[in-house]
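User: Can you model how 9D3 sits in this protein?
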Amino acid sequence: MTDAADGARWRAWVLTLFPEMFPGPLRHSLAGTALEKGLWALETVDIRAFAGDKHRTVDDAPFGGGAGMVMRPDVVDAALRFARGRCGGAGPLIYLSPRGRLLTQERVKALAGEREVILLCGRFEGVDQRVLDAHEVEELSVGDYVLSGGEPAAVALIDACVRLLPGVVGRRESLDEESFEEGLLEYPHYTRPNLWQGRAVPEVLVSGNHAAIRAWRRKQAEDITRERRADLWARYVAAAGRDKEQKQRVD
Ligand code: 9D3
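Assistant: Here's the modeled complex, given as structure tokens:
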């Protein structure tokens, strides 16, 4: 019920108890400029508007006891039906949840290729399981730490998708991404001044030797990945092994 750019190539529907959290930080920087240009569109749906009683109740105590509150299935279902009816109906329905599979760049790419996505943000302990079972819901998490609700996760997902939309990021930056997608963390960056607080820029970067610069950056990326991310490193080593084998088969 916000910002409709009718011709937008990509549209995010966000179902939330806090619609005022959107576009939030997405108003600024890249995603914000793209939103103004109509490259994507944002629609927030206030879940509370679908509460049936005069107190606008959206949650209740969990059956079986325990701490916290659970979002009622009838209220969430009404909000979901509204969103599904208003949009093409084909886009994936995603529930941002700490129990979800981890969001990856691969999934982000696929989601950016959709016409629209519906993002359900939970609050309290989450939503009644039956409404998740009744709709075809994909649960996604943005990491193994505890947020107070799905909204910051939805912001992260939208930001990651929007920067992949055509016309949002320049061609040079997209090319940079291809090297990152080899599965390595990035090498360190330096700019002027060459000498800062007694710290000089690595010699090789001012050598003008582009082959040596490329090799140095690759080594740095490999070292950092090995030290910080054993998971990425294992995958990188396995992929490098497969590439080598394939080459040998061709030769
Ligand atoms: C840890 C036990 N529970 C809280 C006392 C479970 C819980 C329920 C709801 C924990 C967090 C939340 C709210 N989080 C999200 O809605 C969420 C989330 C997250 O917390 N971490 C990573 N990704 C996501 S996506 C949505």
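A couple of observations from the model: The chain has two domains: 10-162, 177-250. Helices lie at 29-36, 73-86, 105-112, 129-134, 151-162, 171-180, 210-228, 230-250.
User: Helpful, thanks.
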